[in-house]
Each structure stands twice: as C-alpha cells, then as structure tokens.
Amino acid sequence: MSSAFPSVQPPAAFARAEPSIVARGVRKSYVGGDGTPLQVLDGVDLEVRPGEMVSVIGQSGSGKSTLLHVLGALDHADAGEVFVGGRHVAALKEEALAELRGRNVGFVFQFHHLLREFSALENVMMPQLIVGTAEGAARKRAEELLGLVGLMPRAAHKPAQLSGGEQQRVAVARALANRPLAVLADEPSGNLDPGTSERLHDLLFAVCREEGAAMVLVTHDLGLAARADRVLRLHGGQLVAVGPEAGPTQADE
User: Is residue 253 assigned to a domain?
Assistant: First the structure.
C-alpha cells in the first residue's frame, strides 16, 4: 500500500545527539500467584537517541509492557538506572515524575484511553493544559497535530462518534502534543484492520522522525518491527539484538 508519508531517515544531527532514553542494568520482578518471585527484567541495557526507532519483540508475558512502563516512569525498577532526557528517574519525587511523564514522554497504547466527555480537539489539548501551556497555544498545537493525522474535520467529535482508527489517530496526536523526548508505543494498532494499521504506523514513524522523538515500539507484528532502525528481542529478561538471520520463531507466536 502506498503511503502519504515518505520514509524518512533519522537526521544526522539526531544520531549525534545524547540519548533521550537510557536504561542501565534494569531489573524488575513480581511475585507470582504461588508466591514465587518472577524475574521479568534481568539487567536490561538500552539507549535510544532522538529520532531513532527501536522495536521490541518477544513472547507473550516476556515483560515487554513492563519494560515500557519502567522506561516511561509508570513503574519503578528494582535495581539499575533509567534516564529520560538526562534526568535520573529514581531520583525524582512523585510530583517531578508526573511532570516528566507529562512533558517528556508520550504513551500510545493498544486501547486509546481517550476522555469520552471531551472532543478530539480537547483530548489533544488536555496534556498541554495540564503542564501549563496557554490555551491558545495548546489549541494551535492540537489543530496542527489533528491536521497531520487527517482529523481536523472531526475535531469537534467526541470519541464515541469516531471510528476505531480515528480514535487511535487522536491518541497518537495526544501522545505527541507536548513534543515529548520519548514515545513509548505498546501494540498501538492491535485492534485495527491491516489497512488502518499501516496508515497509523506511517503516521507515527513520520511524526516521530520529524520531531526528533525517540520511539520504543512493542509489537507482535514482525513486518512492523522490521521497519524500525533496530529490532530487539526481550528474552530471559534481557534485550538481544535480532540479526538478519532471525526468523519468525524468535518473535511472538
């Protein structure tokens, strides 16, 4: 399928920049139903630079979503260090963590989580207003992003009046509203048909490239994963680079 969004390589300036996301020796465990500790992340190391796209594949339950939550300061690591935009996440108090998430991290989930009582435009304005952006500037940015995702004609519609693909495009616009340093996407098109999914992926990649956001994308889709600059597999609690010889058996079944 042809795309309205061209394939864009990371600008050289981004490649020379300091990493937007850094994880060093990150460990995370949970206690299973039988009381046995389950080591989900076991010494994860990762650096993602501005404008770089990294995809993460792995078996269901391997800890991919947990990794995103730790990178985005939605959950804490048991050990190791996470830096977002050079800020040490573990050193921040809750108020500063909330500000970090709001300003510097954009989340795109499989379910859009739009606020049902607000219009598409208001949903994209909301993250900006929360961090103190003036209403006029927030509206201008929201209109710009809704234009990029092709939804300005639907800006006044509430989520229930939008299709699944439209809702998810609003969610992408919302994630990018504050020009985040990092975009963390967890199966962002898992509930969409193939055609709509491809258009959403084109959009997400193009806008992140253009705005210099570092993206970590969790996916079961090997074709989508291969579009990233790097493909990593989460296995045994660690990230392993996937080379050209890696076949489908190394990704999610």
Answer: no
